[in-house]
């Protein structure tokens, strides 16, 4: 960052100096016409002095229009006095930048004064055109300085977009002339390492899926062969094997979510029908009283498969920990959001632990442990899927003495326009 600021400071500093010096030279020689104007007027004064010396001042027809003074009537600077004695024309300026000429005739005592004359005003268009050109040159130089920086920032944008969408074949083309080239190289190296880690994770998930399932299948087969000898012991071992299979399935399901977003297709989804379908599915296997109030035809933009997984996980969570009843409510708020509320009458969740339950493998206490099913990944999956859909989930106390899970999602863009 220090290198970037120093580079920008010195570039602007020296560019302004160069442009100012060039502008002053060009204005003095081409833009400002005052020197040529004075030169022309001075030549006219010299010609008049020669005429007066030739014909005599008393014989000059326009004598009455001349301003004639004695040389001693003016307090001359030494250099001005010397210039007059050398037959030079002395030019002086007043406080309004008006100029006047003084000429000494051959008698060395008579001074003819011409003026004061107002200088010819410079064209306003020329003046501002000259300024515009100067600032345009400075802007062009800044663009040349910023171009490598802009290219590096575009490279970083492409790298981050590739990582976000799961593309691991990252190619980079850093610029050697950018002020942040070192930073860019570090970030790109980090991106390549991240891509490598993601690739290794993907390979690990695939390996676990195959390598763990194979010995578990052999173990289940061996337990089936041993069942007649010790049924109770074999049954307990079978339960442990089933639990390991469920844990592996949950872990693989959660791990695969890391690579699912780039493959996810989006469309307009009738969220009301999606919730109704999941409630019907839960009703077939639940012994609890499920009541609901759903606003009809609530649409969101997203993937119906993953949104259904969110609803399913929340209903399963309420089914596990609720005692007698589950309540579901779906409505729209005033901020172009839909709100889904799933409440149960279970033990509830302490306020200080509500953020923790969305972390993977989190189980709070004995009332919410593996004995009731699950491994602490259901709500973590909910959080990840909602993140893909610009949604969020939070927990409050339920009015039926348990926990209420609130889900917020943006409504469909089509409904916003209506």
From TrEMBL:
CDD domains: HisKA. It catalyses: ATP + protein L-histidine = ADP + protein N-phospho-L-histidine. GO terms for cellular component: plasma membrane. Keywords: Kinase, Phosphoprotein, Transferase, Two-component regulatory system. Pfam families: HATPase_c (PF02518), HisKA (PF00512). GO terms for molecular function: phosphoprotein phosphatase activity; phosphorelay sensor kinase activity. Gene3D superfamilies: 1.10.287.130, Histidine kinase-like ATPase, C-terminal domain (3.30.565.10). GO terms for biological process: cellular response to phosphate starvation. Its EC number is 2.7.13.3. PROSITE patterns: HIS_KIN (PS50109). Residues 207-413 form the Histidine kinase domain. InterPro entries: BphY/WalK/GraS-like, HATPase_C_sf, HATPase_dom, His_kinase_dom, HisK_dim/P_dom, HisK_dim/P_sf, Sig_transdc_His_kin-like_C. PANTHER family: PHOSPHATE REGULON SENSOR PROTEIN PHOR. This is histidine kinase.
